[in-house]
């Protein structure tokens, strides 16, 4: 099974994290997620993260701190999540693809439904 490499932005300001709701027609549709997307062939993680943040949120990260790499296999695909903290950015977050956005307190993240692969990110952030 081919592994899909994904750049994940954990946008944190103070004790709040920006999350987005996946469209119902997408893989894992209707669940909440940390913004991001596929890393294109030959693309560096930082470039992919900046591109995805601009495309999805209309922001440009000014600080990117690698957090962790998570590999997870679903029944229909395998993903490698390259997770980075984005504590500072230019712009005002906006769901450019029509997705709802929510600023969520760190301790409340567990009360939202996330894809299985995101659960270890939440554990890392809450500990």
TrEMBL record:
One matching Pfam family: NUDIX_4
Binding residues annotated for 8-oxo-dGTP, in chain numbering: 22, 27, 33-36, 118
GO molecular function list: 8-oxo-7,8-dihydrodeoxyguanosine triphosphate pyrophosphatase activity; 8-oxo-7,8-dihydroguanosine triphosphate pyrophosphatase activity; 8-oxo-dGDP phosphatase activity; 8-oxo-GDP phosphatase activity; metal ion binding
Chain ranges of the Nudix hydrolase domain: 2-127
Organism the protein comes from: Kangiella sediminilitoris
Domain of life: Bacteria
Catalytically driven reaction(s): 8-oxo-dGTP + H2O = 8-oxo-dGMP + diphosphate + H(+); 8-oxo-GTP + H2O = 8-oxo-GMP + diphosphate + H(+)
The protein's Enzyme Commission number: 3.6.1.55
Protein keywords: DNA damage, DNA repair, DNA replication, Hydrolase, Magnesium, Metal-binding, Mutator protein
Identification of the protein by name: 8-oxo-dGTP diphosphatase
InterPro entries: Mutator_MutT, MutT-like, MutY_C, Nudix_hydrolase, NUDIX_hydrolase-like_dom_sf, NUDIX_hydrolase_dom
Similarity comment: family membership: Belongs to the Nudix hydrolase family.
Binding site for Mg(2+): 36, 56
Gene Ontology biological process terms in this record: DNA repair; DNA replication
Cofactors named for this entry: Mg(2+)
């Amino acid at each position: 099974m081919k592994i899909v490499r994904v750049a994940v932005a954990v946008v944190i300001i103070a004790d709040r994290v920006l999350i987005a709701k996946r469209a119902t027609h997408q893989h894992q549709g209707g669940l909440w997620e940390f913004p991001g997307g596929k890393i294109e062939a030959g693309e560096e993680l930082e470039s992919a993260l900046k591109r995805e943040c601009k495309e999805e949120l209309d922001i440009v990260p000014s600080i990117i701190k690698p957090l962790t790499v998570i590999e997870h296999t679903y029944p229909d695909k395998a993903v490698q999540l390259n997770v980075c903290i984005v504590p500072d950015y230019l712009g005002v977050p906006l769901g450019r693809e029509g997705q709802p956005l929510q600023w969520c307190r760190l301790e409340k993240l567990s009360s939202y439904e996330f894809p299985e692969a995101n659960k270890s990110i939440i554990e890392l952030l809450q500990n």
